[in-house]
From TrEMBL:
<dbReference type="Pfam" id="PF10830">
    <property type="entry name" value="DUF2553"/>
</dbReference>
<protein>
    <recommendedName>
        <fullName>DUF2553 domain-containing protein</fullName>
    </recommendedName>
</protein>
<dbReference type="InterPro" id="IPR020140">
    <property type="entry name" value="Uncharacterised_YusG"/>
</dbReference>
């Protein structure tokens, strides 16, 4: 049996993870390369996302924590 070399397009399967001033490239759990970025490279992110100190954040709205009115109540509801 003879094996022939063939190129397979895996572009849509690649995941990039920020790591200091580079983006590490992964195929499933295997690191396959990296992209080096100069210090201060700007990130162009969509609405509700921002980059700060080599991290990417999502701005979300969360419900405010309500203050509990009663403390030291027993299981029967007596306070």
């Amino acid at each position: 049996m003879t094996l022939n070399q063939q190129k397979i397009d895996i572009t849509n399967q690649i995941v990039g993870k920020l790591n200091n001033n580079q983006i590490d490239l992964y195929l499933e759990n295997e690191k396959i390369g990296q992209i080096n970025m100069p210090e201060g490279t700007p990130f162009n992110l969509t609405h509700h996302f921002e980059a700060d100190h080599q991290k990417i954040y999502q701005n979300v709205s969360v419900p405010a924590k309500t203050q509990e009115r009663y403390t030291d109540c027993d299981e029967g509801g007596w306070c």
